[in-house]
Amino acid sequence: MEMQTEQPQASDIQDTTPFFTRQQWFEHFEQHIVTDSSVIWLPLTQQPKAKVLPLLSPTDNQKAFQIRSLLSMSNYYSPVYGLVNSELSETIGADELCDNTVELLKGYDSINISPIYEQQATDWLNAFKQIGFTGHRYQHSVNWYHNNITDIQQYWALRPPRLLNTLKRKREQMQKAGEFTTQVFSNGSQSQLIQALIDYHHVYYHSWKQKEPYPAFIDAVAEYAWHRNELRIGIIYHQQRPIAAQIWFVCKKTAYIFKLAHVESYTRFSPGTVLMAVLLEHVITEDNVNHIDFLTGNDSYKQDWMSGKHVLYGIHLCNKHSAKGLCLSVLDYAGRVRKKIPLLR
After folding, report:
1. 183 in a structural domain
2. With contact defined as beta carbons under 8 Å apart, do 17 and 51 qualify?
3. Residues 155, 283: one domain?
4. pLDDT, tens only, 287-296
5. Could you tell me the pTM of the whole model?
6. Does the residue 107 lie in any domain?
7. In this structure, is residue 7 part of a structural domain?
8. Do 133 and 223 fall within a single domain?
9. Distance (Å, rounded) from C-alpha 111 to C-alpha 316?
């Protein structure tokens, strides 16, 4: 079953919605990342103010005897997922779904959506269950954050002594070594943005991390944010060579820590820690943010910088009215039961 879908129209209101659910985020995702799936901009409700869910239909769906599945338009770059141009608190009820959408969804055996917050998971599970899907939620990742920031002094007063001591020691170490400089790129010409991104990619390439899989996507979302004064790129240079780099986004009084890396041979200086402090002071004092979001990942060091965390979930849904969906549902349930019951030896 096929359904023609169109992208929602862009509007200025998007700048007030979460950065990672804006239409432009998903458009760049489609353009630079999607290679083995068809994109479906699925209107869940009727126009003129349709709630649109961006989904992927893997090309394997077209092969004979393959399970027909739908996936959220998200991956490791996506810290959250939701309706296009909507707050994350905005979900959907089964009674809101238009008939054409329900018919399209019933043509698929399974649906997987992530990463989402707990209330999103609860609401969407309930909605899908009412149209013939069975499913469950699972833990996808963890989101560390720090809220209620009043000023930089208050923020530093809440940090553990081990972090403050490390910062003091590493700053002194850099000063003693000499020829270290730091720059925060937040506005300027296109050529300045390009140079900042070149420096970022240089650092990432020489870091301990795996090769950036989609550098054009990073450049595209960075340029989009740059032209809206929502991009902050921090770079530490040693002898004019970039050795640490971080990409942050700032919007709605929130700073999002998106990408960070440093040249592996400079690890002894902890340049990532030093640069983190520089950017934190910048966004709190210059941008007046009151919330810092470390996005996904439960790395232990994040608790030194942040004050709390949320669990991020995924939901896996199976169509109990299709033979393959029903089989998937049984296998899924059996797998979850097996994890809870120790094997008899």
Report:
1. yes
2. no
3. yes
4. 999 999 999 9
5. 0.89
6. yes
7. no
8. no
9. 6
